[in-house]
Design brief:
disordered N terminus, 678 residues, alpha+beta, 24 helices, HSP90_C
C-alpha cells in the first residue's frame, strides 16, 4: 500500500464505533506481502520512532484533501470547522491512537489499499531487500515503496484502523496482528475521518522499543519529525484517552475557510496540548530553519526516507508574489519511468493546500523534483484545467525550471561528487528535456554528462569535450548503441581510435531520440560516426592521399557497382570506407537516416515504420575485400561471389550489433564455406 494512499484516509479510534452492521470478514495477505510484513516487523528498522511520523504524515494528507474538497464545493457529511490530528495514549491498555478528522476512506479503498502492501512492487522490493547489505540500505528501500502505514507493526502486536469517508454515513474497521491475516467489517455511525490504534509491544531497550505512551517521548518525536505540519497535532494531557477524545471532538476554533496557520493560533481544547508550531517552512527565512527541519519536511511531502540531495528556496516579489521550497531527491523513485507515475510539486494559495502533483508547475523531465509552491494571487478555486491557461502559473514554471537547472550547474562546478550522484539517478530523465524544452535546451546540455572514449570510468561534460577537441575539429563525435562494449568494439570506431579523436558513447534509449533533434552545442555540430561520410584527414593529408583515393576508386569501381546490384534488396549503396582500419566492412546510414535502434523503438510503440536501406562500406586494404575484387575481376563463379558478398554484409551487420533478416540462411552459407576449407 502506498503511504500517501493511506493518507487519503481518516477515522476515529475503534472504541468509539457505535454499532457493527455486518460480520467481520477474514482475509489473508498475499504471500509476498506477508514476507515483506515480517521483514518490516523483525529486521528492517533501527530507528522505530519513525512510525509516528508516517502516521502523522498520512493524517495530514487526509486533512489536506478534505479541505480541498470543501473548497471545490463537494457535498460532504463532514464537519470542517476544526480540522486537526489527535494523539491519544492509554498507559493502562498500552495503546496509542493517531486520529484525524480528514477525508477518510471508503470500504473499497480499505480493501484495495490497506489490504495489500506495495501491490505493484512487492516482488521487486523483496529481491532488493535480500541484496541489501545492511539495515540502513533496507530502510531506504522500504521508504521508496511507500509502505509507511505498516511501520506501525514495528512497535505494535496489533493494529486497528477505523475510517469513514466524508461523503458516506457508515465506516470500515480493519484489524491485523501482522501474522498473515486481517479482518474487515462495516461500522455504522463511525466518526468522521481515520483513527489508527496501535496495541503496543512491551518496552525493550535492547531492541530500541521505547514507551510510546510516554508524553515526553511523543513530544520528542513530534518536535523532531512533524513540527512543520500545517495542522494542529494535539495530545491529551492529564486524562485517559476516552475523556480527551470527547474534549477534542467538542472543540470549535473557526470556520471551514480558515487557514491552517490561523488554526495554529487557536486555543487547544481543554485538557489537550498542541505539540507542533505549524509554521510553513517555505515562509520562514533560511536562518530560522535548520537543515534537519528541511529534510524532515521533504520526507513528509515525498514519502521518501532518504535526505534530499539539494534544497532550493525561492521568493518572488513584484507583479505577483510566490514562495517556493523545492527538493532534489538523492535517490530516484522506483516509478520514475512508469506511465502511472505522479509528477509535479504541491500547490498552495496563501498557505492553503490546493493540489498534489501540480504538473503545470514542473515539466515532465523534472518530474522527480518535490516541493511546495505557495502563490499569493491565485484563486482558491483554481482547477487543473484553468491552470494550463494561467499566465502566472506559466511564468512561475519558467522561473522554477531556470532556478533548478542553474542549481545543478552550480553543483557540477562546486561539488562534483553530489553532481555525479544527481546525474546517475536522474540523467536519463533530464535528457528528455532536450526533445521538448527548446527554451532551456542549452542550459540542459550544459549539465549533461556522457561516457566517452577519453575515460573508461568517468563521464565527461560537453564543455570538457570541446576544451579537448583537436585543432581544426568542427564536430562533436558520438555513437549510439546498446552498451559501451558494443560501441567500443564497433568497426566505426577504428579510424577515430587510430587518429585519437574522442567519441561520446551514448547508450540510453533516449539518446537515440534527442541526437536527431539537437543540431549543435556552443557552435559545434553533433556528428554520428555511424552516419554519412567521415573524413578525419587534415587538408595536407587530403592532398597526400587524394591520388591514392582516386586510384582505389577506379580499381574497385566494378566491384562496387556489382555488389550494389547484388545486394540491392539489402543496401542502398556499396562504397569504399575511410573510417575502417582493420575490419573488412561496416554498415552506415545516410546523414539524416533514422538509426535501426530508433526504428525498432517506434515499431515497439505500434508505429508502422518503413525499412530504411543503409550503406555498406568496404575496407580496400583488407585481404577479404581485395580477394573479392580479384575474384570478381577474373570472372569467378557468380553465385559463389554473390554468397561471399552476402556473408560480408551479414558480418558487418552483426559487428554493429544489428539483426540478420534471415539468420538461418547466414548460418547455412557460413557452414558451407567453413566445410570447404577442411
Amino acid at each position: 500500500m502506498n503511504s500517501s494512499a493511506c493518507g487519503t484516509s481518516s477515522s476515529e479510534c475503534p472504541q468509539e464505533r457505535k454499532k457493527v452492521s455486518t460480520k467481520a470478514e477474514t482475509f489473508e495477505f498475499q504471500v509476498e506481502a506477508r514476507q515483506l510484513l515480517q521483514l518490516m516487523i523483525h529486521s528492517i528498522y533501527s530507528n522505530k520512532d519513525v512510525f509516528l511520523r508516517e502516521l502523522i504524515s498520512n493524517a495530514s494528507d487526509a486533512l489536506d484533501k478534505l479541505r480541498l474538497e470543501k473548497l471545490r464545493g463537494t457535498e460532504l457529511r463532514a464537519d470542517t470547522s476544526d480540522l486537526h490530528i489527535a494523539i491519544e495514549a492509554d498507559r493502562d491498555r498500552r495503546t496509542l491512537t493517531v486520529r484525524d478528522n480528514g477525508i477518510g476512506m471508503t470500504h473499497e479503498e480499505v480493501v484495495d489499499l490497506i489490504g495489500t502492501i506495495a501491490k505493484s512492487g512487492t516482488a521487486k522490493l523483496l529481491q532488493e531487500l535480500k541484496e541489501a547489505k545492511d539495515s540502513a540500505a533496507s530502510q531506504d528501500l522500504i521508504g521508496q515503496f511507500g509502505v509507511g502505514f505498516y511501520s506501525g507493526f514495528m512497535v505494535a502486536d496489533k493494529v486497528t484502523l477505523v475510517t469513514r469517508h466524508a461523503t458516506q454515513t457508515s465506516g470500515t474497521r480493519w484489524e491485523s496482528d501482522g501474522q498473515g491475516t486481517y479482518t474487515i467489517e462495516t461500522v455504522e455511525d463511525a466518526p468522521q475521518g481515520t483513527a489508527v490504534t496501535l496495541h503496543l509491544k512491551p518496552e525493550d531497550a535492547e531492541d530500541r522499543l521505547f514507551d510510546y505512551t510516554s508524553d515526553h517521548k511523543i513530544r520528542e518525536i513530534v518536535k523532531r519529525y512533524s513540527d512543520f505540519i500545517t495542522w494542529p497535532i494535539r495530545m491529551a494531557t492529564g486524562k485517559k484517552a476516552a475523556d480527551s477524545s470527547e474534549a477534542a471532538g467538542a472543540e470549535k476554533s473557526g470556520d471551514g475557510g480558515e487557514s491552517p496557520d490561523s488554526a495554529a493560533n487557536a486555543d487547544s481544547a481543554p485538557g489537550a496540548e498542541t505539540l507542533n508550531s505549524m509554521k510553513a517552512l517555505w515562509a520562514r527565512s533560511r536562518e530560522e530553519v535548520s537543515d534537519d527541519e528541511y529534510h524532515e519536511f521533504y520526507k513528509h511531502i515525498s514519502h521518501d526516507w532518504n535526505d534530499p540531495l539539494e534544497t532550493i528556496r525561492m521568493q518572488a516579489e513584484g507583479t505577483f508574489e510566490y514562495q517556493a521550497l523545492l527538493f532534489i531527491p538523492s535517490v530516484a523513485p522506483p516509478d520514475l519511468f512508469l506511465r502511472e507515475r505522479k509528477r509535479g510539486v504541491q500547490l498552495y494559495v496563501k498557505r492553503v493546500f490546493i493540489m498534489d502533483d501540480c504538473e503545470d508547475l514542473m515539466p515532465e523531465y523534472l518530474r522527480f523534483v518535490k516541493g511546495v509552491v505557495d502563490a499569493q494571487d491565485l484563486s482558491l478555486n483554481v482547477s487543473r484545467e484553468t491552470l494550463q491557461q494561467d499566465r502566472q502559473i506559466q511564468l512561475m514554471r519558467r522561473r522554477l525550471v531556470k532556478k533548478l537547472l542553474a542549481t545543478v550547474k552550480d553543483m557540477m562546478s562546486g561539488d562534483a561528487e553530489r553532481y555525479a550522484t544527481f546525474w546517475k539517478q536522474f540523467g536519463r530523465a533530464v535528457k528528455e528535456g532536450l526533445l521538448d524544452d527548446f527554451e532551456n535546451r542549452d542550459a540542459i546540455l550544459e549539465i549533461c554528462s556522457f561516457a566517452s572514449t577519453h575515460d573508461a570510468e568517468k563521464p565527461v561534460t560537453l564543455r570538457q569535450y570541446i576544451d579537448r577537441m583537436k585543432d581544426g575539429q568542427q564536430h562533436i563525435y558520438y555513437m549510439t548503441g546498446e552498451s559501451r562494449t558494443v560501441i567500443e568494439n564497433s568497426p566505426h570506431m577504428e579510424a577515430f581510435r587510430a587518429k585519437g579523436y574522442e567519441v561520446l558513447l551514448l547508450t540510453d534509449p533516449i539518446d537515440e531520440m534527442w541526437v536527431g533533434s539537437v543540431p549543435e552545442f556552443d557552435g559545434k555540430a553533433f556528428q554520428s560516426i555511424a552516419k554519412g561520410q567521415v573524413d578525419l584527414d587534415t587538408e595536407e593529408e587530403k592532398k597526400e592521399v587524394e591520388a591514392e583515393r582516386e586510384r582505389l576508386q577506379k580499381e574497385f569501381g566494378d566491384l562496387l557497382s556489382w555488389m550494389t546490384t547484388a545486394l540491392g534488396e539489402k543496401v542502398k549503396e556499396v562504397r569504399l570506407s575511410s573510417r575502417l582500419t582493420t575490419s573488412p566492412a561496416c554498415i552506415v546510414g545516410d546523414t539524416y537516416d533514422m538509426t535501426p535502434a530508433l526504428e525498432n523503438m517506434f515499431r515497439a510503440m505500434g508505429q508502422d515504420m518503413p525499412q530504411v536501406k543503409r550503406i555498406l562500406e568496404l575496407n580496400p586494404t583488407h585481404p577479404l575485400v581485395t580477394g573479392l575484387r580479384e575474384a570478381h575481376a577474373s570472372g569467378g563463379e557468380t553465385e559463389a561471389l554473390a554468397e561471399t558478398a552476402e556473408l560480408l554484409h551479414g558480418m558487418a551487420l552483426l559487428a554493429e550489433g544489428g539483426e540478420l533478416t534471415d539468420p538461418q540462411r547466414f548460418i547455412t552459407l557460413l557452414a558451407d564455406r567453413l566445410q570447404r576449407t577442411l
